[in-house]
Amino acid sequence: MAGYIPEDIVEKIKSDTDILDLIAEYVTLKKTGKDYTGLCPFHKEKTPSFIVVPDKGFYYCFGCGASGNAVNFIMRHENLDYPEALRFLAKRAGITIPEKVAFDQESHTTKLYKAVEFAESYFKKHLTNSAGYDYFKTRGVTTAAIEEFGLGYAPDSWDGLLKTIAKSKLTPEIFSEAGLLVRRENQTAGPNEYYDKFRNRVIFPIRNLSGRPIGFGGRVLSDQEGPKYLNSPETPIYHKGSVLFGLNHSKNFIRERNQAVIIEGYFDFISVYQAGIKNIVAVSGTGFTPNQANLLARFCERVVLLYDADAAGMRATFRAVEVLFNAGLEPLIVRLPEGMDPDKYVRVNGASALRSLIDGAVNYLDFVAQSLPDKFARLPISRQEKLIESLVQTAAGLDDDLKHELFIRKAIEIFDLPPAASAKFERPKKRRVNLEPPEAFGRIRFEGAFLGFLIANPNYINESFKVIQPEHFSEPAHMEIYKKLKEWSFQETNIGGFLDKFPDEDIRRKLTEIIVRESAGAPPEARFDEFASKFREFHISDQLSALRQEIARAEKEGQTEKLERLTRAYRDLQNTAKRKAG
Fold it and tell me: Which of 63, 253, 329, 362 sits CB 3.0–4.6 Å from 324 for a disulfide?
């Protein structure tokens, strides 16, 4: 069958993929006992609730419930379907898949990726001996950097890319949706329906965390040729506010230093990176966003803002501070000399000078204090009021109450603010909401604990089915998991493989939670006897409840004989329960 991946290859892909190594490429993990914890990559959080259990081959987030094995992680993180995720992991592991996928079976997302990859090859091909190559050289970009970042050039043609796309077997509509072609307004279908978006520009591929190209940034060769920079529009695979330029190259350096340096442009990034300062990222075509801050929080705790030394750069710096605070990151600020940007500074003064500036970065409040022309008390009243308003506004943007309080105390200390100013920082107390779940789920928790016991002690599975049947479970998800336990051999692979048996994400999440919460206790023999006894109690309770309902109906309908029979059955079952309890 076209597109089929042989089962032995699927198993090899899974067995050759170490889930800890894989997830560590995306999340900074800390060892906690036998497991590893970090900030969840699938939802915003400040306290780590994401756990990786390497010996059992799965991950779980206590915050959002995301769970699964290595394949599930890549499916969710890279927005891939199951076969695409397997191919992604196969490529990563150097495994060749002996099959050829039928083109029409490829998903829409895959076609968009292929369109961007095709365009990347087109731009790289046209860089050789081009005006774009000469321009890169005048800007000090090395040949090694051109190769490492896959830089390219879009020829000065309205249909250069358009004419070549037939080789890709993709439609102009796909290239248009990927942000590479533009459809002419009021144009009927035909050869002139589309034109190239990028023309006569040097090209910077924008990549996701795994290094796959998802969009482009283009710079004109002359400032007289329209907008200086042109970026890919939002597409199904490229979301500007969730991507940081160069992070796929720099994430390990950021993790090592526990610090990221944010700069504003493509050339800034490349100049600083090729100078040897590699724990950097760049924003592109957007202001710094909460999603980008949460992305960085997975790799570090401190972020240095190294924006241009102009008014726009300062405004961007102050806006980014609040975003970083709310992501649980410590913002630090560097002020470049007037008229400088990181690209120019590192080319004029060298990498060691820039590194010294970065090492001397100060926190936000100290930066504001250093920027004042005089001590707060000696400033004009109007300037004092404006400063207090600015500090109050920044503090108000902090979601976390503790950070809000610490910020206020530090501001009062640094600026020696008068007592009256403290009142301006106050905000209404939040009404506490009781998020504790009700205690009505004792049986469901018990069932989950029993399943966890069987998974940890699979030699009891056959014995269990002699006394406990699937219908004895009250929770449908637990019933499905129990049924699958009978047919699964836990000697074949780790628990991550068992998760594949459940395409339903809700059941998979519950199963993962069960596994995470299972802990050692009494000897297995004693625990199994306790579980079996409790299940019998639950089963008898269910039977008694059903009989009570039938007795009530018989009474209502005046069925005397049936009522007597049901009443005897009810008493017999009660006596059986008492004997077992005794």
Answer: 329
